[in-house]
Design a protein that fits this description.
This is YhcG N-terminal domain-containing protein. It contains five helices and no strands. By secondary structure, the protein is an all-alpha fold.
Length: 116
């Protein structure tokens, strides 16, 4: 009976470790996918700004309107400040090939702390 309890506890501990590892892997995968999406959004914002007649004013207008549109279509998370952060992440890591490995290791919190 004692051996059975010990074996059962070992099984429970192993299953808990497996689930915790799977959850951590899922979190990393989602984080990586979202960071890539934010980088792509930042890239599109920068590309769009380059075609403006008056870049600074035009760029501000793009971000404000995009914030309104995305908030209406998708919901929270697309404030002007957040879109500016997406833009900054692209400008900071604009060389996609060389910086992909570095970008994967950072969380969104890290990105927001980066000053361009």
């Amino acid at each position: 009976m004692i051996e059975s309890k010990s074996s059962e506890m070992s099984l429970i501990q192993d299953v808990v470790r497996i689930l915790q590892s799977a959850r951590q892997n899922a979190y990393r995968a989602v984080n990586t996918a979202m960071l890539e999406a934010y980088w792509q959004i930042g890239k599109r914002i920068v590309e769009e700004e380059q075609f403006g007649e008056i870049r600074a004013a035009y760029g501000e207008g793009i971000i404000k309107q995009l914030s309104k549109d995305l908030s209406r279509e998708i919901g929270k998370g697309f404030s002007v400040a957040n879109l500016e952060n997406f833009r900054k992440s692209y400008l900071t890591f604009s060389d996609n090939q060389k910086s992909y490995a570095v970008r994967r290791e950072l969380s969104w919190t890290h990105y927001r702390l980066i000053k361009v």
